[in-house]
Design a protein that fits this description.
The protein is mainly α. This is Exportin-5.
Length: 1228
């Protein structure tokens, strides 16, 4: 310690003391002071000039594993820090000593065959390779080949060397110097063939010879074999950026995979599966797919198809499950890749793959594992653009068999029973419970395949399987309707023989669903059907009507009515059977009116009526008087939900008339009571304040069991729900002609006071009578969550439960599938709380959606109202501070689409409200982010606090993501060539990360690099929200999402990506508008420094995402260039303070930028110039990013275990007695 503290040179005689210190460090019983002293000695040797020499001396095989491991760390440290400064002779000598030490390792030495020691040798060799290859070590690959032939241990070191080299250079780009990394990347790709050959040689070497006599040697060979296949997988993955190279290595890839499948070695087969999966590209493009054509030609993948088939036929038990799952994933990758490839090329030599794919799909759909069937069914979505293959006659038999099995494939859904999954397969091996599997399935598949799962956040988990199968059914009918028609007619005949008996079959409902889909799909080929099958269809209609006369079984009635609704569109409009069918369908709306169990069936019939009114209008419009008469007869027995649905269907029918007067007449009949309701003094008083409303619906009185009082309050709540929903039904289906000629013909046009011809909305006059009450009510509903409003709620209510999110909303926040609770299984008080939460949530959502639709649908008529500005500012944008985060997210979603699709004239009315919204969002989200970070830093949590924190983070992530979408749509000018979304569409398309590609050229993004009208308006000084807007954007840019730690990183990742993508473009635009901003005094030097510091601060958060951090580099360089002359030292000051780069490096960077600005070749912002400038910037800040990057990188081949660094405690030398020092460094 005295010698160390005086910084005296370390001498050779310190080795015994050093070895004692290492052994002491790894003893569990060593106390803190002894461990600290030993650690300090080890560190002093590591930093000394003799580090390399002492490290080699510590590799003597007589030393323990800890000593040899520490010696390898000394060597590695010396190579990484001092190698360039060593004389060439010393470099060559050190390299030779390292290899000789490896070659001289005895085969039976347990320490040298330890993975930690072998990995240490590999790390040291890789460090030399990254410095010397290929210039100073041209024989590197041949040396690797020679070393690998010595024995299995040496071969595994070689495998680690190549694997680590590929990771460092190709995957993680860990070489500090970008130009050196680029050079090594080129050399690695050029040497790929030799690496493949070397890997295949080691695979054969590990399989060669007789079975080893000892278990230890057998284990070493198995490890070598597995590691060889891991390296093969890394080699294949390294070629993905250049898929054209696959054509050179197709046999070298398939041969070892074939051997692995034949070997019966399950671990090796699983790795070989990963190798094949790495071949098939993830991004769908002709550039990526064309090189893999060779894999599908000449039956090259037949061995893989045979292997997957064999695995699917194995007994379904715990031993085979892992391999079954891997094989299913491989099949999914192969099939989806082939579907995309076939869509582009349709090469005849590859057509045989379809037969294997269809047969495997049938086999996997028959498998008892729900997991396999779910993955397999998703292939149907990839096949939707390959419909031509359905017409090929040779595939007709297998496709027919596949079609016939669809009812059974979609039967077993959801959580499996023990009879189906006897050992809870996908719960035992991957998840704690079956429910955990279903939750994971919901998260993964809903995000990856929204086309199969729709865009609902609360959908049933197994709906994806059914909908994916229905995609196939519809496509097959469109391509080969005769076969499907023949099959379903046979099924229908079996049902019609005895509907009651048929309904007892377990596949009855799924078979009926397939029949329904097929018959609906026949409408697309209706002319061909009518030519040959019309009389049969008529006979089937008569048979269904007769069966309905005597059928009493609920399921059978439901199926027969559904079948009838699918058959009648095939009939001619003038067919005399249609009136009877319509009467039967409408009368079914009241079937079992007194039976609560029949409610779902009646709702299904209501859905069928809306479907007929919207899809098959030609058949209904001729019988409109009959429909009105029948509906009037049963109207009194309909539920509120059914009434709204029937009104929706009637307005959908009326659009065929295109007549203003008919719309007005229908509204006056259907909405008379609703107008009177909202105009009544009682309701106007009730909705005037949140306190009045809460009292009016019964929350001001105590919780009671008085049935009559509860019924009175329940009736009031039902009235509010009904009168909002019916208005929503009308406005959602009422369509106004957009063409002037059609509008004039239908009487929709008037001439305003300026003489302009205007299109009138037929609902505007009626709705504006209710607007004062409705907009007041909208603001009232936002205010019920305020502290003052909650005071009027009676003390007998649990306010936390009463005003909480609904269970469906909570499930959506946590990414879980929502399971509807049955009220009969709940206590009465819990039922009340749940119903009240649903009432308030649905009422708020419907009213908000209704009024936003009205504003944009009525257009000029709305803004001509005297109180229009007040409606927008106080009704729509008022009291947002009282909304919960989740509801605020829904508000943003509902406003965004109609606002971005509206005209400039309409948008001008929203500027002030949007400015208030931006300021509020800035205050709210920054507070939420700070709260999350503060809680993260807390040391202690109980289970309840942890759950609440996870929930809060999820809600904030959802809100952040939605806000990013909102701002991007709000502030960026839309591409005029792209079609605008319809005002009805509330959901938004997912963010496409390919738009963030660092190689995207300016032409691709130029259409988005312009501020919209609202973007320019919000930048005006008078609006006074610019500071909040930029603060919000910059904070979003640098926000670190912690939810990744709680396994929901998919949602968090999307939130950051969308926020980052917008900020890139927005700030780029900001630089273009600089002079305007500066003249207004908005962006001064301090503001620019603040913004630039935010951008630099975001880089460490994104350093492991090369695409996005690349855009950050580009943005930082562009801002540096733009503001260099305006604020000469601003960016430089921020760089010196934030990134800790040296002044000399910064001056060199500045000189390069100056030369580039003066060089005409650099004035065009193409990919080449951007790449050069980005490399300059990366070199400047490499020290800023390196610690975080190297700390977070996950390497496949692992790291050496570090020395046991003592915990951070104060060290006092006086606490160590002089008498204990000699014993501290003695041999133990």
């Amino acid at each position: 310690l005295v010698r160390m503290n005086e910084n005296l040179p370390v001498t050779g005689d310190i080795l015994p003391d050093l070895i004692s210190a290492i052994e002491c460090n790894f003893q569990p019983t060593t106390d803190y002071n002894m461990r600290s002293a030993s650690y300090m000695l080890i560190e002093s040797v590591k930093e000394s000039n003799q580090c390399l020499e002492i490290g080699f001396r510590m590799l003597d095989i007589c030393f323990s594993i800890y000593v040899q491991q520490c010696g390898l760390q000394f060597i590695l440290h010396a190579i990484r820090t001092k190698w360039p400064s060593l004389p060439p002779v010393v470099q060559q000598l050190s390299k030779d000593r390292l290899i000789n030490c490896l070659l001289s390792s005895p085969a039976n030495n347990d320490i040298r065959s330890t993975p930690a020691i072998m990995e240490g040798f590999a790390q040291c060799i890789v460090a030399i390779v990254e410095c010397d290859w290929p210039q100073k070590w041209k024989s590197f690959i041949e040396d690797c080949r020679s070393i690998s032939k010595i024995g299995p241990s040496q071969a595994m070191v070689v495998l680690s060397v190549i694997g680590r080299l590929i990771e460092d250079v190709m995957e993680f780009e860990l070489i500090e110097d970008p130009s050196r990394n680029k050079e090594l990347r080129t050399v690695v790709l050029d040497s790929a063939s030799q690496f493949f050959d070397l890997t295949l040689e080691m695979i054969k070497q590990s399989n060669a010879g007789e079975i080893p006599p000892s278990g230890a040697e057998s284990s070493v060979r198995q490890r070598m074999l597995e590691k060889s296949y891991h390296l093969l997988n890394s080699l294949i993955a390294s070629l993905n950026p250049r898929p054209h190279l696959f054509t050179k290595f197709v046999d070298k890839i398939l041969e070892p995979a074939r051997d692995a499948f034949k070997s019966g070695n399950i671990p090796v087969a699983e790795i070989a599966i990963s190798c094949l999966e790495s071949v098939f590209p993830r991004k769908a493009s002709a550039k990526n797919y064309k090189p893999v054509v060779i894999f599908f030609e000449s039956g090259r993948l037949n061995f893989a198809y045979d292997f997957i088939m064999m695995i699917s036929l194995l007994p379904f038990d715990q031993q085979n499950y892992t391999l079954l799952k891997a094989a299913t994933h491989l099949f999914f990758d192969i099939a989806t890749c082939f579907c995309s490839f076939w869509e582009l090329f349709e090469i005849e030599d590859c057509i045989d793959n379809w037969d294997s794919i269809f047969r495997l799909m049938l086999s996997l759909l028959k498998h008892p594992s729900t997991y396999c069937r779910m993955w397999c069914s998703l292939i149907f979505n990839s096949m939707k653009n390959c419909k031509k293959v359905y017409k090929i006659e040779r595939f007709a038999p297998i496709l027919t068999e596949l079609f016939k099995y669809i009812p059974k494939a979609t039967l077993k859904n959801g959580e499996p029973s023990k009879a189906v999954e006897p050992f809870r397969a996908y719960a035992k091996f991957d998840y704690e419970t079956n429910a955990a599997f279903l939750i994971d399935y919901h998260r993964k598949f809903c995000l990856l395949f929204p086309c199969a799962f729709a865009r609902s956040e609360t959908l049933v988990v197994d709906s994806g399987l059914r909908e994916a199968c229905e995609v196939f059914v519809g496509d097959w009918v469109a391509s080969n309707w005769r076969r499907a028609y023949s099959v379903v007619m046979g099924w229908l005949d079996e049902i019609l023989k005895n509907p009651a008996e048929a309904s007892s079959d377990e596949c009855f409902m799924t078979t009926a669903k397939v029949i329904h889909v097929v018959l609906d799909s026949l409408v697309d080929v209706i002319e061909d059907v009518k030519k040959t099958e019309y009389t049969i269809i008529q006979a089937k209609v008569d048979a269904v009507m007769n069966a309905l006369q005597n059928c009493q079984v609920v399921n059978a009635v439901q199926v027969l009515v559904s079948t009838l609704s699918s058959l009648f569109p095939i009939l001619d409009v003038s067919d005399p059977r249609i009136p009877g069918i319509l009467c039967k369908l409408i009368s079914s709306l009241t079937l079992g009116i007194d039976d609560p169990e029949m409610a779902e069936v009646r709702h299904h019939f209501t859905y069928l009526f809306i479907k007929m009114a919207t899809v098959h209008q030609a058949h209904l419009i001729a019988h409109i008087e009959l429909i009105w008469k029948e509906i009037s007869a049963v109207a009194g027995q309909l539920s509120d939900h059914q009434k709204c649905a029937v009104v929706e269907g009637l307005f959908a029918l009326c659009k065929l008339f295109k007549n203003f007067e008919q719309y007005a007449q229908l509204m006056s009949v259907t909405l008379q009571q609703t107008v009177e309701f909202w105009a009544s003094a009682e309701i106007m008083t009730a909705v005037s304040k949140p306190e009045n409303f809460l009292i009016y619906i019964g929350l001001g009185d105590s919780l009671t069991n008085n049935d009559s009082l509860n019924l009175a309050y329940h009736t009031r709540r039902k009235q509010f729900s009904f009168h909002v929903k019916i208005l929503h039904s009308v406005i959602s289906r009422l369509e106004v002609p957009t063409e002037i000629e059609d509008a004039k013909t239908g009487g929709f046009c008037i001439t305003d006071v300026q003489g302009n011809l205007r299109i009138c909305h037929p609902a505007a006059e009626l709705f504006q009578m209710m607007f004062p009450t409705l907009f007041t009510f909208l603001r009232c509903l936002k205010g019920i969550y305020s502290v003052s409003s909650l005071k009027v709620v009676h003390a007998t209510y649990d306010k936390a439960k009463l005003f909480d999110l609904t269970d469906a909303e909570k499930s959506a926040v946590m990414g879980k599938p929502h399971e509807t609770k049955k009220f009969k299984d709940m206590q009465r008080q819990e039922v009340f709380y749940e119903k009240m939460k649903l009432f308030l949530a649905e009422l708020s959502d419907h009213l908000q959606h209704l009024l936003i639709r009205c504003v944009f649908a009525f257009d000029w008529q709305f803004f001509a109202l005297p109180n229009a500005a007040s409606y927008v500012e106080h009704g729509i944008f008022g009291d947002l501070e009282n909304l919960m985060d989740y509801r605020l997210r829904l508000f943003l979603r509902r406003v965004i689409t109609p606002l971005s699709n509206s005209t400039t004239e309409v948008q001008s009315y929203f500027v002030n409200g949007l400015a208030k919204l931006v300021e509020h969002l800035n205050d709210r989200l920054i507070a939420r982010w700070h709260l999350i970070m503060k809680k993260e830093n807390a040391c202690e949590f109980d289970d309840e606090q942890t759950k609440q924190q996870i929930f809060t983070e999820n809600v904030v992530s959802l809100l952040t993501r939605e806000l990013a979408l909102f701002l991007r749509s709000l502030l960026l000018q839309q591409d005029p060539e792209k079609p605008r979304a319809t005002p009805k569409a509330v959901e938004l398309p997912e963010f496409n990360s390919s738009a963030m590609d660092t190689d995207a050229n300016d032409e691709q993004t130029s259409s988005s690099n312009a501020l919209s009208f609202l973007g320019k308006s919000l930048l005006q000084r008078e609006v006074n929200c610019y500071a909040s807007l930029v603060s919000l954007l910059l904070n979003m840019l640098s926000w670190r999402e912690s939810v990744a730690a709680f396994h929901i990183s998919q949602v968090a990742g999307l939130a950051i990506l969308e926020a980052v993508e917008f900020c890139f473009i927005f700030l780029y635009i900001l630089t273009k508008h600089y002079f305007q901003l500066q003249s207004n005094g908005i962006l001064d030097e301090e503001s620019f420094k603040h913004a630039y510091a935010f951008i630099l601060g975001a880089m460490p958060q994104q350093c492991l995402n090369p695409e996005f951090v690349g855009r950050l580099y580009d943005l930082a360089v562009q801002l540096y260039e733009h503001f260099r002359n305006i604020y000469p030292n601003a960016a430089q000051t921020v760089l010196l303070q934030t990134t800790e780069c040296s002044l000399g490096d910064l001056q060199a960077f500045d000189k390069k930028i100056l030369n580039a600005l003066e060089n005409p070749d650099f004035k065009s912002c193409n990919k080449v110039t951007l790449k050069v400038k980005r490399d300059w910037f990366k070199s400047l800040i490499k020290k800023f990013l390196k610690p975080l990057k190297t700390h977070q990188v996950r390497q496949i081949f692992g790291e050496l275990p570090p020395l046991q660094r003592p915990s951070p405690q104060p060290f006092f030398t006086s606490s160590i007695s002089p008498n204990t020092l000699p014993n501290l460094f003695q041999e133990s």
